[in-house]
Design brief:
Structural class: mainly alpha
Pfam family, one: DUF2336
Number of domains: 3
Oligomer: single chain
Organism: Methylorubrum zatmanii
Protein name: DUF2336 domain-containing protein
Number of helices: 18
Strand content: under 5%
Length: about 325
């Protein structure tokens, strides 16, 4: 027996009472069954057949007021069985047809909110593309248990901590299979210098150009509090060291720097996300390639035997300049 039928309330007692000619419980049973049908999360075949069998048999036998109430309750429901519609229409109370969505966005919301709808690959791609900038749709899709965590990567910014970790873990499985070229080696130094100089726009521009990100990449984070999470993924992709990332967290924005909890959460995200995973999460969130345009030329492995190092780099041992000391404010 289907779980939807097995979990339904036992109305056998009411049905037995309805056979007593002195008591007419058929209107009550019909209204209760209608409410249960409408409240069911999924209208599977068993639910439809059970409701059709009972309602189509009771509608011709109950009073007109009960029929009117049932017809109004079922108005707009797309899953009303044909036999029930015919029985209500025969009594003079046709059921209102389902309301057509006013827009594609409304149709997408209705589809995502229907737990019984099977969402195919192409449909899911369309829903995810819209959900990147639609927080309500994003929350609905994130709540669906039938969508694998890896497919929810475009909605990582909208997910809670536990779901973010599940998505990152799923992405990590395949992230290492794709080459992850290093960004320009001057990028980290440039970012540290821009942050130290409080040049926020210069910092954002340098980071975007260094990774080949879309021009308005920060716009992917509609919630301002999530923008630093996006920046942290970008910093991890840019191959910054942890100390450099922490320096940026403490100098780029005073609001972030004053919050110990916020800085700690960003550092934790930086530590827990490897560079390839951060790169793939950025790709999914932005819906655009990352690092594919960085560097401008053919990728050369820095540590390979064929790597060419400049004399200056050899003298320094390939080390980046030390972080600038943070200026103490006297005001």
């Amino acid at each position: 027996m289907s779980s939807s039928v097995a979990d339904a309330p036992d109305l056998s007692g009411l049905i037995e009472l309805s056979r007593d000619p002195a008591i007419d419980l058929k209107p009550v049973i019909l209204r209760v069954q209608t409410d249960l049908f409408l409240a069911a999360p999924v209208h599977d075949r068993a639910i439809l057949q059970a409701f059709e069998s009972l309602a189509a048999g009771l509608i011709p036998t109950v009073d007109a007021e009960t029929v009117r109430i049932v017809a109004e309750k079922l108005g707009g429901c797309p899953d009303v069985p044909a036999a029930v519609r015919a029985a209500l229409e025969a009594r003079g109370f046709p059921v209102d047809p389902p309301r057509e969505p006013e827009s594609e966005a409304e149709a997408d919301h209705a589809l995502a909110e229907n737990p019984g709808a099977l969402i195919g690959t192409r449909t899911l791609e369309r829903l995810l593309a819209r959900a990147r900038s639609d927080a309500d749709l994003a929350r609905t899709l994130l709540a669906r248990p039938d969508i694998p965590p890896a497919d929810l990567a475009p909605l990582w910014l909208h997910a809670g901590p536990e779901q973010r970790r599940a998505i990152a873990a799923a992405v990590e499985v395949t992230a290492a299979l794709r080459p992850c070229p290093r960004p320009p080696r001057t990028l980290a130094t440039t970012l540290v210098e821009r942050s130290h100089g409080r040049d926020i726009q210069g910092f954002i521009t340098a980071l975007g150009e260094g990774l080949g990100l879309p021009e308005n990449y920060l716009g992917a984070a509609s919630d301002p509090t999530a923008r630093y999470d996006l920046l942290t993924l970008a910093l991890r992709t840019a191959d910054l060291r942890e100390g450099e990332a922490v320096f940026i967290f403490l100098t780029l924005n005073d609001t972030v720097a004053r919050s110990v909890d916020r800085v700690f959460s960003l550092v934790t995200l930086f530590r827990e996300t490897d560079r390839a995973t951060a790169r793939d999460l950025l790709c999914a969130i932005l819906g655009a390639p990352v690092l594919e345009r960085a560097g401008g030329g053919e990728y050369q492995p820095f540590h390979g035997p064929e790597a060419k190092r400049s004399a200056a780099s050899s003298e320094r041992g390939g080390l980046r300049p030390a972080l600038p000391s943070r200026l103490r404010r006297t005001s």
